[in-house]
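User: Predict the full complex structure for these chains.
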Amino acid sequence: MDALDRVVKPKTKRAKRFLEKREPKLSENIKNAMLIKGGNANSMVTQVLKDVYALKKPYGVLYKKKNITRPFEDQTSLEFFSKKSDCSLFMFGSHNKKRPNNLVIGRMYDYHVLDMIELGIEKFVSLKDIKNSKCPEGTKPMLIFAGDDFDVTEDYRRLKSLLIDFFRGPTVANIRLAGLEYVLHFTALNGKIYFRSYKLLLKKSGCRTPRIELEEMGPSLDLVLRRTHLASDDLYKLSMKMPKALKPKKKKNVSQDTFGTTYGRIHMQKQDLSKLQTRKMKGLKKRPAERITEDQEKKSKRIKKN
Amino acid sequence: MSLGGAMEGQSVEELLAKAERDEAEKLQRITVHKELELEFDLGNLLASDRNPPTGLRRAGATPEAELQALARDNTQLLINQLWQLPTERVEEALVARLPEPTTRLPREKPVPRPRPLTRWQQFARLKGIRPKKKTNLVWDEVSGQWRRRWGYQRARDDTKEWLIEVPGGADPLEDQFAKRIQAKKERVAKNELNRLRNLARAHKMQVPSSAGMHPTGHQSKEELGRAMQVAKVSTASVGRFQERLPKEKNPRGSGKKRKFQPLFGDFAAEKKSQLELLRVMNSKKPQLDVTRATNKQMREEDQEEAAKRRKMSQKSKRKGGRQGPGGKRKGAPPSQGGKRNRALGGRMNSGPPPLGSKRKGGQHQGGKRRR
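Assistant: Here is the predicted structure of the two-chain assembly.
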């Protein structure tokens, strides 16, 4: 609990900075991922974890030792690791007869498991099996999801959201157009999910936008959806809550027509029409002689009345 | 001549047609035909293709080539979108400005709640005290150099004094150095106590839970107990037929805290209270607690002054100049008579209704109950 963290006040500036980095903030840090091997992980699963770590560097931790836990039965040890290393995404690999080449991918909210999805690896081609040049680590990948299955079931929708969360990398405001180097492509077909990663080659086309050619670069996986442990609706809604400060501000007094015309509203005070500035009609102005005669007329009228 | 003119007209048309064909060819290299448009989230460099993958279904066991073709098409569309973003040149690299990501993803930690103000902050707000800007270094006469205000080798270090004069009224055999050290320890302990109290207050405010349960499970024993009690009583028969666990005890203190006098109790006391009630009702002058009224008035005035000062400082900061708080009066408080009148006005309304609510016996109070 953060309150307990503050009961023991940090004695050095470094400790204080460490704690401040980990406390909840309005705009959050980039999510770290931890890659864990289960008690009976085989070479394929280990290689998968190593490849994903290479894709996720430097926002990931690869645990070298095997950890004998079962994520779907007991989540306490995962939560403990998440708290110690401040990672909110995790990937756990294991292998047994009932579930061969198993990969559990999941995310945390407030150091508790939010969503967990178990995937089975049917085919795997590693980074080192494909002999070509790779892109530097830390590049932001482009993500493409193909197939209408990703919107049909709730499981697939959460899986899509989880994969976006896992692989998207840091959120940046600007990006160098020449630095868009690789793309991760997920296709959902016949109950299987094909994960391919390609390196981008920009070729000349006649106009400004280049023509794309792809070259298969990285790990390619054929995955099958197995068990899921999804968060309840209200916990999910709570985790999606955006703080008010980050919500986009509405512009007041500006509205748009159906035709696209923008209208603005100005609020004015009430005008005193008697003091209105109108055009000066100099020709109609009374001359002094006329004014004297008018006064005389008025005086005579008053005398008559009295 | 006309023939020549016709020939020229033809060649111009031909040229135009050729130019159009060239353009179409160029664009063909980057256009992709899709039945359903893709959905783009450029902030995340994300594209979603909703088209059913019919080409892949035909491919069968090894769909690698088809997958690559599909990926190429989708990537081309995404790149087309990205190249249309506004660009700028930053240190000889072409950089595109990305929009905000539109996909909503769950946070990793809960939204930080605004902490309640500490006791000092509340007091400072009330009195209008603002933090004074202090210099980093202070001139130290003893050593003849600029020293920091606190910490290692500070300017006026109490602990380094080798001579303390015994003050006039103190015991000559008392150890003044030890006294100083003791006083410092007490101050540190008091500060720590206040800090912990502020923390406890902040932590108590952080759990305004709904239905008593905190979603991620960080709850204290008392809160869980309370939530359990509330849940037990929330049945149609108000918890009468709820089973209890084998060794569970009755909840204590869960009812409302109201005590009523028994119907046949102390007759003398009852007579006295009723006579007092009648006397107060008959008296022409309303009851007034002077000290309470004056304190309330003083507090209100302080708050108004503080709010005014804060507003003025905000305004002057915006304007750029700095005006002293104009018309601030910190002299004697206004006269007693004036205060009493004001306080009178404040108390007049609260006179009769609470007295009216006390009735004889068990008569029901109809209508609204006023406090």
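Residues 12-96 of chain B form one domain.
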